[in-house]
Design goal:
Elements lengths: L4 E3 L8 E4 L6 H11 L7 E4 L10 H6 L6 E3 L3 H9 L3 H8 L4 H4 L3 H12 L4 E6 L2 E6 L8 H6 L9 H7 L19 E4 L8 E3 L2 E3 L4 H4 L4 E3 L4
Parallel strand pairs: 1-5, 2-3, 3-4, 6-7, 7-9
Antiparallel strand pairs: 2-10, 5-6, 8-9
Length: 224
């Protein structure tokens, strides 16, 4: 898990945006970016993961990782691609959740995709205009950003990466063990589909069902 936590260290000349789960909806994303006037030369778009599966344009969404204006954290669907060739349980889960396209590819393509997904961090931190923003696909167990990051470097019975990619407990506002995440201005997550962006404390859940309802959330972080 050496690359699990990444702190963005490249210059950002323009704005920073966060985007919810794409799930193969490439054209929807590009249309949305053009509509809001996204500056492809200077702005940065951060995906909260799940670029692939269920939608029709998986390879196009993967190609976004080659663009200097785009970056992403690893979602559970990227994780399924990584382990689907070596684990029957992962493959069955993957195929049952829109991943059949991956197994129709030849082995060279599959391994190239796996290598790209293995490079994606589980946690990304971006500082911009005097604020610190966090990105993770599904869940933050700790109520402190630095403690959360540190959990990826501790040996524990809990697997920090699996909690971060698969868990949904913080989304449940009735679960009172979770409060504001200290040490960070805002955190952006996906994974749990919600009809409109859901804010709990300083956590924003922004998977608004692009592949289900063609409603893709893109947030300008200057306005959060």
């Amino acid at each position: 898990m050496n690359n699990a936590v990444k702190v963005w260290d490249k210059e950002i000349k323009g704005k920073v945006f966060a985007v919810g789960d794409l799930h193969g909806c490439y054209n929807l994303l590009i249309t949305r970016l053009n509509t809001i006037g996204f500056d492809f030369e200077n702005d940065l778009l951060v995906s909260v993961g799940d670029l692939v599966d269920r939608g029709p344009q998986n390879l196009e969404c993967i190609s976004l990782l080659e663009q200097p204006w785009f970056t992403a954290v690893r979602g559970n669907h990227e994780e399924l691609c990584i382990h689907g060739l070596s684990s029957l349980a992962h493959k069955q889960c993957h195929v049952g959740n829109g991943g059949e396209w991956f197994y129709a590819l030849d082995s060279t393509e599959q391994n190239e995709i796996i290598q790209k997904f293995e490079q994606l961090p589980i946690v990304l931190e971006v500082s911009h205009h005097g604020k610190k923003f966090g990105f993770v696909h599904g869940h933050i167990e700790e109520n402190d950003w630095d403690e959360f990051k540190a959990s990826f470097f501790k040996e524990s019975l809990r697997d920090a990466d699996q909690l971060a990619m698969w868990n949904r407990n913080r989304f449940d506002s009735e679960n009172k063990q979770y409060t504001k995440v200290g040490g960070v201005d805002a955190v952006f997550l996906g994974h749990t589909v919600t009809p409109k962006p859901f804010k709990r404390d300083n956590c924003y859940f922004i998977d608004t069902g692009a592949v289900h309802w063609a409603t893709l959330t893109v947030l300008d972080l200057d306005k959060v």
